[in-house]
Specification:
single chain; two-stranded antiparallel sheet; 4% strand; elongated; coiled coil; Double zinc ribbon; DZR
């Protein structure tokens, strides 16, 4: 049983006045939680982990930034699986192998870049590949060979 779990109300022997008070209390608590949520959103939108360094919020903001990065990566991968990509500048949806945006003319960079956590990923579709692979198993893209 959590702190904010509500206790089921028995409505058998409750007077209308008590039931009305219970409804008003529930509405007030719901409004309070909404205000707290909005305060949290406002704080998150106006601060980052660097600004919150040394505060109790630092780890939470780092987690939020990590989740945002994972969300962007997953959205890119979803489009790539469909053979599409999005222009970083204007948001136009394009064919995956486009070199330039046909709306704003922006040169399109590789969608996925290797990281320390995942050094072997296809730059076109984001699929992980085994060491020594020549072609991506996700999209067939020719892979760049790692320097020895």
């Amino acid at each position: 049983m959590g702190l904010f779990d509500t206790k089921p109300m028995q409505t058998d022997n409750i007077s209308p006045e008590v039931a009305d008070c219970d409804r008003q209390l529930a509405a007030l608590n719901q409004r309070r939680e909404e205000v707290i949520r909005r305060i949290g959103l406002l704080y998150v939108e106006s601060n980052d982990a660097k600004a919150a360094a040394g505060t109790p919020y630092e780890e939470f903001l780092k987690e939020i930034e990590k989740l945002a990065l994972e969300t962007v990566t997953l959205e890119k991968r979803k489009l790539a699986v469909q053979g599409l990509r999005k222009c970083e500048k204007c948001g136009n949806v394009l064919v995956l192998d486009s070199a330039f945006c046909n709306k704003c003319g922006q040169k399109l960079e590789p969608l996925f870049t290797p990281t320390a956590d995942n050094p072997r990923i296809c730059a076109k579709c984001g699929t992980a590949y085994a060491e020594g692979a020549v072609f991506c198993i996700g999209c067939g893209n020719k892979l760049e060979q790692e320097p020895v």
